[in-house]
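Researcher: Quick test of sequence recovery. Tokens follow.
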């Protein structure tokens, strides 16, 4: 996360913190959630059933239930499906290109072909 740099359109120092982060159940650890809270990053990560039952069995010491917004999580599915559609292009899936700018062009061409597909 520390390597993220998103340039601002009007110039200035690049952003290093996303506005919101969505993840699947594999990233639901206490450590990940604490890291995101410390950096003030809003997140939508579902809580696995075993973590939920463990938290509930601890009673009042288990803490609050995690917040979860289903509408935001549904948008994550669209992004994953788009990435999987891009991976149908063999050049994107295998990444034989040695240079980043060549790979970026390959992904751009695959995106255009996906966009123009009926």
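Model:
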């Amino acid at each position: 996360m520390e390597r993220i740099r998103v340039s601002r359109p009007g110039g200035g120092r690049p952003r290093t913190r996303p506005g919101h982060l969505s993840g699947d159940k594999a990233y639901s650890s206490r450590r990940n959630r604490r890291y995101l809270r410390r950096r003030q990053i809003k997140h939508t990560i579902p809580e696995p059933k075993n973590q939920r039952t463990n938290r509930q069995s601890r009673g009042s010491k288990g803490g609050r239930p995690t917040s979860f917004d289903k509408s935001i999580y549904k948008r994550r599915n669209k992004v994953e499906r788009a990435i999987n559609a891009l991976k149908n292009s063999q050049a994107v899936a295998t990444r034989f290109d040695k240079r980043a700018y060549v790979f970026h062009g390959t992904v751009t061409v695959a995106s255009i072909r996906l966009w123009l597909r009926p």
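DSSP finds five helices and two strands in the chain.
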